[in-house]
Amino acid sequence: MLQVPMEYYLILSAFMFTVGVAGVLIRRNAIVVFMSIELMLNSANLTFITFSSYLGNSIGQIFVFFVMTVAAAEAAVGLAIIIAIFRNKLSVNIDEINIFKW
Amino acid sequence: MNIEIILFAVLALVAATSSVMMITRKNAVISAVFLVLNFFALAGLYLLLNAQFIAVVQVIVYAGAIMVLFLFVLMLLNTEAEHQLFIDKRGIKFFAIFIAAFVFIEIAFLIFKSNPSKNLSPDQAASINSGTIQTIGQQLYTNYLIPFEVSGFLLLAATIGALVLAKKKFE
Predict the structure, then answer these.
(1) Which residues cross the membrane (chain B) (predicted)?
(2) Are residues B70 and B146 in the same domain?
(3) What crossing angle do the helices spanning A59-89 and B67-76 adopt, rounded to 10°?
(4) Is residue B87 part of a domain?
(5) B-chain residues within 8 Å CB-CB of A6?
(6) Is B137 found in the same domain as B101?
(7) What does each of the 171 residues of chain B score in pLDDT, given as a tens digit?
(8) What ipTM was estimated for this complex?
């Protein structure tokens, strides 16, 4: 048990975070950008759980619990904002949402 | 070969592949389904790491509640011109991949430089004990009671905020 080296989990987490970064930069659909942010949050969660398990300490898992709460709140409010923007602009393309640009 | 290492390899492969598929599919619904697959693979990895409670919460809250919310919004919004949202400018795409690869190399360098497993000798009993619902519940209701209450308040505020934002007209 716990025979997988810790670095493997951390590298997987780093890879998923990187894919999330690439998703935010490449995609123009606001909802997919949101999903990429969820992916980044999850990769951070994986790091928390890895350290928590290998240290035998439950504080990391409590942090993950709070991260999940905040992610749920963020998803609800963010999707409501996307719906409100879609009602005005009839689009979820983040290149067209530029009312704050000077 | 050890069963734990095989399980890790399979789950890690599924998690990595589904995350790449998520950002490369043109259809947002298929992206969402790949994200659900990724969350399930992560729940399996949490089980491998002896985090039983978090693994179950991951399936219920993330793969269940949050992704249903995403799919529901995708259903509500008319995104028939979906493929046009996929970026066509090659320059920006290569630039984005370059930035992402730079971030990955940076993190991987730091991980191998710090070499965390050198100083750690994992204690199996303590690891199993730290993931049980009893330990986490005890911590949440004693040392972390105030953050727990605040997160409940945050959820209430988010619910009200989402209702107000998504309402048709402000009256």
Answers:
(1) 6-23, 30-49, 55-79, 91-112, 144-166
(2) no
(3) 0
(4) yes
(5) 116-117, 120
(6) no
(7) 688 899 999 999 999 999 999 998 888 889 999 999 999 999 999 999 999 999 999 999 988 899 999 998 888 886 665 555 555 667 788 888 899 999 999 999 998 888 777 777 778 888 888 888 999 999 999 999 999 999 999 999 999 999 998 887 655
(8) 0.91
17-76 in B: which are within 8 Å (CB) of A?
A: 19-20, 22-23, 28, 31-32, 35, 38-39, 42, 45-46, 48-51, 53-54, 57-58, 61-62, 65-66, 69-70, 73-74, 76
The pair of three-digit structure tokens given for residue B86, joined into one six-digit string: 């996929």
Extents of the domains making up chain A: 6-89
Residues 128-147 of B with CB under 8 A from A: 129-131, 135-136, 139-140, 144, 147
Structure tokens at B84: 């046009």
Q: What is the DSSP string of A39-84?
A: HHHHHHHHHHHHHHHHHT-THHHHHHHHHHHHHHHHHHHHHHHHHH
- Report the predicted TM-score, pTM, of the whole model to 2 decimal places: 0.90
Does the domain at residues A6-89 carry the CATH identifier 3.40.50.10540? no
Domain with B32, as residue range(s), is 3-119
Interface of A with B in 31-90 (CB under 8 A): 31-32, 34-36, 38-39, 42, 45-46, 49-59, 61-62, 64-66, 68-77, 79-84, 86-87, 90
Tell me, yes or no, whether B12 and B47 share the same domain.
yes
Q: Is residue B11 part of a domain?
A: yes
How many other CB atoms are there within 10 angstroms of residue B27's CB atom?
15
| A74 contact residues in B (CB cutoff 8 A) | 158
Interatomic CA distance for residues B134 and B99, integer angstroms = 43
- Together in a domain, B32 and B112: yes
Alpha-carbon distance of B2 to A95, in angstroms, equals 49
